[in-house]
Amino acid sequence: MSDDDIADLDWQRADRRGYPEAVYCEGKSVEQVREIAQRVAEKPDVVTIFTRADDERAEAIKEVLPDAFHDEVARFLAWPPRRPEPTGKLVVVACAGTSDLPVAREALLTARHLGRPAELVVDVGIAGLHRTLSKLDVFRKAGAIVVAAGMDGALPGLIAGLVSCPVVAVPTSVGYGASFGGVSALLTMLNACAPGVGVVNIDNGYGAGHLAAQIAAP
């Protein structure tokens, strides 16, 4: 690599690990994202995921890869656009509230583009426990469950106490002042009483979806 180069894409990741390269767009300039997309265009047989792409960066990617799959809520793009045929166990993504949807959808789409069947269950936070319990049949079909929650972050522990599969907890930065940008939810999840809860970083829907896809692999 020269001093002017900006990236060294991992074209062999799928061969080595069984899962595609992912490009984290936040923090990169629009021009850097566009240049990376141009390199991706030269490898049409290599699956590449773009995460945390705001509108400006997503447009730069689509200028180069006009057929790329794009979900604006999740800020998620994938190339080639077609998802692999789903295999393995079901991944269920539970979203505590509508404000958690960007993170939950990032997890959902990551799991799908890594080849797992995946379903999204929305607005099942503990403030309305009846809504959580009404989805028990869906949760109990899963091979892995991702739970995205902010505020007090109590939902993953609740769900983990009702199912037999692993739960991947992803704290979100949703909440009022004392939520400290997701730190309160993170600490609650790390201290979950129910066993079988793994925790990823704040707002890391990609990491949660990836881990769940690996857990649910055939």
UniProtKB/TrEMBL annotation:
InterPro entries xref list: P2CMN_synthase_LarB, PurE_dom
Pfam families according to UniProt: AIRC
PurE domain segment(s): 89-218
GO MF annotations in UniProt: hydrolase activity
Any one biological process term the GO annotation gives: 'de novo' IMP biosynthetic process
NCBIfam families in the cross-refs: LarB (NF033503)
Protein's recorded name: PurE domain-containing protein
